[in-house]
Amino acid sequence: MGIMIKDLIESTDLISVSNSKHALPAKVEDLTTLAEESVEQVALPIIDFSLLTSGSPDQRSKIVEELRNACLHWGFFMVVNHGVPQSLKEELINSCMNFFDLSLEEKSVYEGENASDPCILDPIICGTNFNPASRSVSFWRDYLRVLVHPVFNSPVKPEALSEGLREYSNRSREIMKELTRAIMEGLELEEENIEESLELNSGVQKFSANLYPPCPQPELAIGLPPHADRGLLTLLIQNDVGGLQIKNKGKWVAVNAIPNSIMVNIGDHMEILSNGKYKAVLHRAVVNNKETRISLVMTNGPSTETYVT
Ligand SMILES: O=C(O)CCC(=O)C(=O)O
Fold first, then answer.
1. Are 112 and 118 in contact (CB under 8 A)?
2. By alpha-carbon position, which residue is closest to atom 1 of ligand 1?
3. 21 located within any domain
4. Spatial separation of the C-alpha atoms in residues 212 and 222, rounded to whole Å
5. Is 124 within the bounds of a domain?
6. What is the CA(55)–ligand 1 centre distance, in A?
7. What is the average per-residue pLDDT within 287-300?
8. Which residues touch 62 (CB under 8 Å, ≥6 apart)?
9. CA distances from 256 to 54, 76, 136, 236, 242 (A)
10. Among 157, 233, 263, 302, which residue has the fewest nearby CB atoms (within 10 Å)?
11. CA of residue 201 to ligand 1 center, whole Å
């Protein structure tokens, strides 16, 4: 398989990325806005999930209103008291780290035919690149991407990955359904049964682990270029290293998850369901020269048979 970033930095004394395929051509990105320090750090709205599921009717209405504002003004928010144990999050992060530690030969089983141009319905794929439009530049990220619903897949190694991934897939799907119901309520688009109309029981759920090893020249490279997500809602957890930036009111701002929160953002299906009121916001991942960052991303969409209008 093509070399992955982690293996590249472990096998060489790389001190520069200029003149390599990992350096961004200026037209891809305004490099001056890439450095973490040059971007303002903002606090995202915090949503107390437990009040949606077990609060009083008044408390629930208050959270529905908070969600409405978060979707309208940010497209991103942090969910706390979500019920996913911290231990599950840590196990999953460790298992994914262990996956990236496998030998290139072991990882190459999942390279697939489309590693530089992955398809949404590939069951398991790993590599470095993002999409065909950006083939000329390699991003500073290794990824593992797994289709976990409606059919559950998982790499065989490391052994612990499958159990944690199944558990997290189930729990995050329930969180996504509850948030979707509350978002619909806030839009006063109360569907009799949103789960049925979007066929969420056979909805597509895609898991990605993104590994961003330290980069010798972070100002010249990017982990993930600006993009918006597919689907209804994306749930993101990460280790303690920041790097996510979102476009808010025309400028890039850095967002850092508070401990034990899940970061949630609007995807393009939700934008369509809200008649364009809520936007699938552009975001990107920048890299640093000190620490490895890992983010675990769960995108949740309707079933492949559903038309969203
Ligand atoms: O790593 C991050 O913070 C962003 C990940 C992301 O946007 C993605 O996987 O689509």
1. yes
2. 295
3. no
4. 9
5. yes
6. 31
7. 96
8. 51
9. 27, 11, 30, 11, 6
10. 157
11. 25
Write down the pLDDT at residue 18: 60
Closest ligand 1 atom to residue 229 Cα is: 10
Q: Residue 150: pLDDT band by 50, 70, 90 thresholds?
A: very high
Supply the pLDDT for residue 53.
Answer: 95
Q: Residue 279 is part of a domain; what is its CATH number?
A: 2.60.120.330
For residue 118, cis peptide bond before it (omega within 30 degrees of 0)? no
Position 256 scores a pLDDT of 86
Q: What is the pLDDT of residue 304?
A: 83
What single letter denotes the amino acid at residue 110?
A: Y
pLDDT reported for residue 7: 81
Q: Whose CA is closest to atom 9 on ligand 1?
A: 297
Asked if residue 109 is part of any domain, the answer here is yes
**Candidate from 48-57, 78-87, 192-201, 258-267 with smallest mean pLDDT:** 192-201
Residue 89 identity: K
The yes-or-no verdict on residue 4 having pLDDT over 90 is: no
Amino acid 191: pLDDT: 62
Task: Assess if residue 6 is contained within a domain.
Answer: no
What is the Cα–Cα distance from 87 to 84, expressed in whole angstroms?
A: 8
Out of 142, 144, 224, mutate this one to test ligand 1's pocket (max ligand atoms within 8 Å of CB): namely 224
Q: Which of 145, 215, 238, 244 is the pocket-test mutation for ligand 1 (most atoms within 8 Å of CB)? A: 244
Within 6 A (CB) of ligand 1 lie 208, 210, 224, 229, 236, 243-244, 283, 285, 295, 297
CA of 295 to the centre of ligand 1 (A): 7
Q: How many domains does the chain have?
A: 1
